[in-house]
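Database export, one record per block. Field names are fixed; values are copied verbatim from the stored entry.
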Amino acid sequence: MTIAILGGTGPQGQGLAKRFALAGVPVALGSRDAGRAAEIAAEISTALPGDAAAITGHDNLGAVDAADEMVILAVPWSGHNATLEAIKGGLSGKILVDIVVPLKEGDPKKVDMPPEGSATEAAQALLGDDIPVMGALHNVSAHTLNDLEASINCDVLVCGNGLAPRKKVMELVEKLGVRAYNAGDAEAARCIEAITPILIRINISKAVPFTHAGIKIWAPEH
């Protein structure tokens, strides 16, 4: 099953492409610049083991067309709506996985939520109810994704309207070797997306002895 990653030339998109390819999932990298996407795809592929799945580069619409069902949106918040407007016509029959967090311009330690309440809800409003939008992977750092020597150090919360597509996204995410949790409908994205700037604040703090931390759901020990 080929997936598309739009914004695939950025650090988070590249990290996800590497991780999915290593998990045996072919990836179509999307960018506004098809040439740049092809260049990055070739660069990533060369650095991965020979048994990794294929990574190919396309413009955004080409990547959407190449995806069997899942399209991951990993663009900066500033390009979120414009990218969706450009690819909307190609998303029929597919699931959009929105990993974008609306960080405040000039201060990534805060969010600047859109009127809809979250990036996930904004995407759903823009695309309409016929295209399921699932929020996921908001709280995983790009550095962690690109450090292939280490496992991903957090759990993933998945939300969106519709149980069936939510379960499909959870199954896809778990191919990365993480645990995915059903976090409920799209409104839950308001809470999940807002965790990211808190993690950023903690990770850049001189008061803690680590960086690039994520979140985990811990079961009781009794």
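Remark 1: Residues 189-203 form the longest helix (15 residues).
Remark 2: Strands lie at 3-6, 27-31, 55-59, 70-73, 95-98, 103-104, 107-111, 133-135, 156-160, 180-182.
End of record.
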